[in-house]
TrEMBL record:
Pathway: Polyol metabolism; myo-inositol degradation into acetyl-CoA; acetyl-CoA from myo-inositol: step 2/7. GO terms for biological process: inositol catabolic process. It is an enzyme of class 4 (lyase). PANTHER family: HYDROXYPYRUVATE ISOMERASE, INOSOSE DEHYDRATASE. This is Inosose dehydratase.
Length: 304
């Protein structure tokens, strides 16, 4: 992050999606990275199709782009922390080699994220014993991340055992603030609880990475009525870029400024790239940031 407090990125998910690797498969790494430059972002997250670290670094350097982090599916409850640690070491090694800031961890034991189950009412729940296992395991993974100069940021997610505000509260209570941080994803908390500000205000001190994902309310309601899965919901257009849905990002951004948030804010709007042109939506997001969010910085400086 150097001297700048907030870095703006955009995730590959609008071009290619690790949850459904077939969609957008024609979009190459060069295409994605060059679009990111055209849209005026400083970096991105690592996608499942990204190459070895040296190849990626070359492509990044040519475009003056940086890597914020990468998703890691942990199975601490299913496999135990020793097994999870082995895979996590490899993950962190790669992230260190591409100079990333964070390792994004999501506990995927019992997750229905990639299944055809109704994401609105079939989410899994952990037992007390499983919560303990998860908390202790994440503390260990957090220490591993630090060995590589990274912060572990936990991703609350629809269709998983850590989805609702109450579950995020429990996870925060059950983990060591020195080693386990939080990723705040506006889209996931909105679809889960509707209220996205309470989570932000409550856990701002633990938040070290942010995903800006907007939600189309009418599409969300339709998906809920039809009992759609997570994958079907985003293919139907439940998510979009900030400024194009019902979340008030000015309120979110003001809070981040007032609390001196330092880190990445990554636009992450999964849609079907054959329906929502990735560069068009990246430009739409950038315009919204420039016109509605960045001007708030002056207001917040005056207030401070
Ligand atoms: O951060 C994320 C990564 C994706 O793989 C995930 O499904 C998406 O919803 C998300 O928020
Ligand atoms: Co996210």
């Amino acid at each position: 992050m150097e001297d700048k407090k907030i870095a703006w990125g955009i995730a590959p998910i609008g071009w290619r999606n690790d949850d459904i690797p077939e969609i957008g498969a024609e979009n190459t790494l060069s295409h994605l990275l060059s679009d990111i430059v055209v849209a005026g972002f400083e970096g991105t997250e690592v996608g499942g199709f990204f190459p070895k670290h040296n190849v990626l670094n070359k492509e990044l350097q040519l475009r003056h782009l940086k890597i914020a982090g990468q998703w890691f599916s942990s199975f601490i409850i299913r496999d135990g922390v020793e097994e999870a640690s082995k895979a996590f070491h490899k993950h962190c090694e790669y992230l260190k080699a591409v100079n990333a800031a964070v390792a994004v961890v999501s506990e995927q034991t019992y997750s229905i994220q990639g299944t055809d189950k109704n994401v609105f009412n079939e989410k899994p729940y952990f037992t007390d014993k499983e919560w303990d296992q998860l908390g202790q395991g994440l503390n260990q993974l957090g220490k591993i991340a630090e060995e590589y100069g990274l912060k572990l940021v936990f991703h609350h997610h629809m269709g998983t055992g850590v989805q609702t505000l109450a579950e995020i509260d429990r996870l925060m209570e059950n983990t060591d603030p020195n080693h386990v941080h939080l990723l705040y994803d506006t889209g996931h908390i909105y679809v889960s609880d509707a209220d996205y500000m309470t989570l932000l205000n409550k856990h701002i001190n633990r938040i070290h990475h942010v995903h800006f994902k907007d939600v189309r309310q009418a599409v969300k309601e339709q998906c809920e009525r039809e009992g759609k899965s997570f994958l079907q919901s985003f293919l139907t257009g439940m998510f979009t870029v900030p400024g194009d849905g019902c979340i008030d990002f000015t309120e979110v951004y003001k809070t981040l400024l007032e609390t001196n948030y330092s880190g990445w804010i990554v636009i992450e709007a999964e849609q079907d790239p054959s329906v929502a042109h990735p560069l068009e939506y990246a430009l739409k997001a950038r315009n919204y940031i420039n016109e509605e969010l960045l001007p708030l910085e002056n207001g917040s400086l005056i207030k401070a």
